[in-house]
Design goal:
It is a single chain. The protein has 319 residues and is mainly β. The chain has one domain: 7 Propeller (Methylamine Dehydrogenase, Chain H). It is built from 2 helices and 24 strands.
Length: 319
């Protein structure tokens, strides 16, 4: 064979082999609306941290130990004057029900069914903003640092706060939503998704003037059941995870359709569900002293610590 042709053939063969290896590599996770992904090769690398809320405590678990079946706290918080919560307000945080890492893990946005809503600085464990919302069940960061809060049974509404306003503890707007439970800000669609008792709603934020901000209802989707509870965005997907009284569903934001979740669909009364943004590993909680992982499967006891909701976070925690 001509030497130039032989060199060209070898180069072509090498590039094809490399491309094929990358294509079939099991280390690269693949995402689908089913919520099931191909597991990574090293189980200890399947997550970074798990942010948990329950009882009087917010705590963060080390994911490396979770992969070994151990719940190791690397950070925790309870309301006290030492953490910037006046003694008269500590009762607001007696039953914590959600915690989301924000600002690249520097802070945690928390809510409690005793009406407390706050932002906690992880490094100092000090509260940087605080408000009261009846039966607060979750909160979500909005563009510009504003905060949406779901006021569940007894409040039955959504509220928006502006921590930068002259009156940061007072809502700048509110709108009714029976049994408001879940919130997800969808930056691609500039939409706030909100989960209520038997419906999923899509809201737009109106007005460029922060003080005049309003939530404008654009669409309502009837749930295939009642008792809507948790709402989470599926990474690299158009899907929204939804739990209600009897099932776990995926809502396709493009097709506007609900389908039962392939792995957790039949589980009742799921308080929280989340998908790891890198590995696709599922975590869910039924409210108790354990968390349950899927893909791969394991159940991890949390000792005396109660888990109502658990959220993955893949960045560094500034503790």
């Amino acid at each position: 064979m001509n030497p130039l042709k032989r060199a060209h053939w070898r180069l072509t063969s090498t590039l094809f082999a490399v491309g094929l290896a990358l294509f079939v590599s099991p280390v690269l996770p693949t995402f689908a609306l089913s919520g099931v992904t191909k597991p990574s090769g090293n189980r200890a690398e399947r997550a970074t941290h798990l942010v948990c809320a329950g009882g009087k405590e917010i705590f963060i678990l080390d994911a490396g130990d979770l992969a070994k079946g151990i719940a190791s706290k690397i950070w925790s918080w309870t309301a006290s004057p030492e953490t910037g919560v006046p003694e008269s307000r500590t009762k607001w945080f007696a039953n914590l029900d959600d915690a989301k890492a924000i600002n690249d893990g520097k802070r945690v946005l928390i809510t409690a069914s005793n009406s407390g809503v706050a932002i906690v600085d992880v490094a100092t464990r000090k509260v940087t903003w605080m408000a009261t919302v009846r039966n607060a069940h979750t909160a979500e960061m909005l563009p510009g640092g504003m905060i949406a809060v779901a006021s569940s049974i007894g409040g039955d509404e959504l509220l928006v706060f502006d921590p930068k306003s002259p009156t940061p503890e007072s809502p700048i707007c509110r709108t009714a939503l029976p049994s408001a439970h879940g919130l997800v800000w969808d930056d691609d669609r500039k939409t706030l998704w909100a989960l209520g008792y038997d419906e999923l709603r899509a809201y737009k934020i109106t007005s460029n003037d922060r003080a005049q901000t309003q939530l404008e209802l654009r669409k309502t989707h009837k749930l295939p059941g009642i008792g809507g509870h948790d709402l989470r965005a599926m990474p690299k997907s158009a899907g929204l995870l939804i739990s209600n009284k009897e099932h776990v569903y995926i809502f396709d934001r493009i097709k506007e359709q609900f389908t039962e979740h392939a792995t957790l669909g039949k589980i009742e009364k799921v308080k929280s569900i989340d998908v790891h943004p890198v590995t696709g590993q599922l975590v869910h909680s039924l409210w108790g002293q354990k968390i349950t992982l899927s893909n791969p499967d394991s159940e991890i006891k949390t000792g005396s610590s109660i888990v109502y909701k658990a959220r993955w976070f893949t960045g560094d925690i500034a503790n």
